[in-house]
Amino acid sequence: MKWSERAWENVKPIYDKILTMPFNQELSNGTLPKEKFIFYLAQDAYYLLEFGRTLSAISGRMQNAEMIMAFAGFSTGAIFAERSLHESYFAEFGLANQVQPSPSTLLYTNYILSQAAYANVEVAVVAVLPCFWIYKAVGDHIFAQQDNDQNPYKRWIDMYAGIEFAAAVEKAIAIADQMAAQANAETQAKMLLAFEMATRLEWMFWDGAYQMEKWKV
Amino acid sequence: MKWSERAWENVKPIYDKILTMPFNQELSNGTLPKEKFIFYLAQDAYYLLEFGRTLSAISGRMQNAEMIMAFAGFSTGAIFAERSLHESYFAEFGLANQVQPSPSTLLYTNYILSQAAYANVEVAVVAVLPCFWIYKAVGDHIFAQQDNDQNPYKRWIDMYAGIEFAAAVEKAIAIADQMAAQANAETQAKMLLAFEMATRLEWMFWDGAYQMEKWKV
Amino acid sequence: MKWSERAWENVKPIYDKILTMPFNQELSNGTLPKEKFIFYLAQDAYYLLEFGRTLSAISGRMQNAEMIMAFAGFSTGAIFAERSLHESYFAEFGLANQVQPSPSTLLYTNYILSQAAYANVEVAVVAVLPCFWIYKAVGDHIFAQQDNDQNPYKRWIDMYAGIEFAAAVEKAIAIADQMAAQANAETQAKMLLAFEMATRLEWMFWDGAYQMEKWKV
Amino acid sequence: MKWSERAWENVKPIYDKILTMPFNQELSNGTLPKEKFIFYLAQDAYYLLEFGRTLSAISGRMQNAEMIMAFAGFSTGAIFAERSLHESYFAEFGLANQVQPSPSTLLYTNYILSQAAYANVEVAVVAVLPCFWIYKAVGDHIFAQQDNDQNPYKRWIDMYAGIEFAAAVEKAIAIADQMAAQANAETQAKMLLAFEMATRLEWMFWDGAYQMEKWKV
What we know:
Four copies of one chain form a homotetramer. The longest helix of chain A has 29 residues, at 65-93. Chain A has one domain (3-211): Heme oxygenase-like (Heme Oxygenase, Chain A). By secondary structure, chain A is an all-alpha fold. Chain A has helices at residues 3-20, 22-29, 34-61, 65-93, 103-118, 121-127, 129-145, 154-160, 163-181, 185-211. Chain A contains ten helices and no strands.
């Protein structure tokens, strides 16, 4: 059994909760309040920047040309997505350019940044994997449920399920499996934990957006 | 005006909230439920380990002997404190050796670890300063309020106000001021923000303990 | 005066020595022994991989979208150049895929990698600048001296003076100037030193290739 | 066979060359020219500072209390040794406070700093091991050869063979073996390579001192 298959099985309960959480249900059927969607977009823009930095940092820790280039390319892709958000939705909704991260967003971004700087590189690689894989699976799921053109979030949902992102997700999973295949049992276990934690942080990211989470002080 | 004076003024509103938050009030008058104190101790042990790692990482980014040694010494002090917790309170309360961090604890530890790895070193230095300075000020405040020996948390409160920790706090503030004095206005502003964020995370750490915060998924 | 102008003035003596050193003179007039050129190519391939890693690491330490993307893009460019070397010259000369770095190459790559991980980011940025700027200036100089098609290194020299690389060099210099403009005098001085050291290491890289430098033990 | 036994066997040829190289022979019999000894001391002071930074950085990447503390303690020890050099020998010989590293010194320090920041932590740990183990073995060897009190370098040689340093060396080897025991074959092989490279750099450090190595530009 590939590491990625074990990892997916391991986070299946959290993934199921992500599919049924209010944010994604209401995004899917078009009833999500607009201010929650806007809150989410702004946090996503902040997230993508830090995700890009993390991917670059992991690229710097790789030791062969293919891996260095793959992660530098992922980083460029993340920053490109962040820019697109700013240029399209941010303009459309009149959002400020600078975004303050919510506690859940800051928890997620600092978790992956820390893994990229301190953990062994195999573990760092799978800490960023949920943002590829879980995100993609959720996007595909929501996309498949669409049956009319009336959903105000249609444009966003279409983007979710793009071909380019699909190729990146596939490559990221393949790299994780390749690294896991060379890792010993202890490292593989750490990889499962990091993948699970980041999946949990994906849930919290959506939940935080739905709650429009604020700092208490 | 020293940077540290501006920084303190800037976080004064959060500091005031920390003094009056239920956890510290009840710790001070001895009415804090024991299970909340135990929750706090376990999180503190986890925190101290990561705080130690962060201090070591900052030591590695310093460029003169005095600074490298100061932060390596701070790290040793933090780990020594963590060990003391395990050897005294953990044994007394029958706690498990391994601690799972709460969301607020993980947010705080990953914030400081990330600053130590990615930010310019002046900023990293002040991201760890609240855990010295705020903690010390709160400890002194609670210690000063004690008027009898009946507080079940007396032993903990006495430790709060130790001389050795006081010397470390003073040194950490002096280093921050020294670095700020050589920094330009933009860096000084970033230093204020990092000090404020870490102070906010101190508040969340105590609040999380009082709530006995759990992961939602 | 821009920081980059001061920096160039400061390394002018080393740059002049680079132009007149045997490796570049003989490359320019076509008399460079083939085995020295091959030694150089192999070291260059090793260097480019580590240069790419360094650029990615710097990207991870940036704080705005434009900078993160610029350095991730530089990294991709470096790895792409490394791959081109392998696919064209390595095949042509029957070189082994894996290259052992010479002492000078290892000194240069570890110097820039260390700066990217430990120094403040302004300093890291200029530690990689000579590999853009000095290299480009030397390439242009040699290209301008060509007056016939008989030089066996023509294809290499033509590549040296490409438009794409020119754009990257210009962007890297502009970023350095932008960061220097916001830095205080002490940081600007450290930036000059790092730029000078990396220029010196450029000289040593070419010298090491000409000597076909070996490890003594 | 313990990893450390394989590692020692693997570097035995380089170790033998270190014992017989002129610097150590002449140090041992007291004929080493004083200016070479002074050159060495100054480089050693520079090295120790960077060695201390590296040990701190490794401490920051550890994941349990014992390891974090061990490496922070090693760092403190290295900086303490550096300070002793300055306070005794630097004063005695009227050396400048600031030392410029030679190429070999800079190669060694940047190699270990880079490993601490980018490599998996098991590899970083053994990249710093030769400075403990090889240095200790050479010191003991030279100490054992002393048969009179006329050697002008007696005080230095005595320090070489101290009990405190011996305990640190033993602990560093034990940690390396502990980490290697949990590593897979590929990682163990990388550990051998890093240990060998750092041993080679030990040789170059002594050789550079004997040559009173200068920068060519």
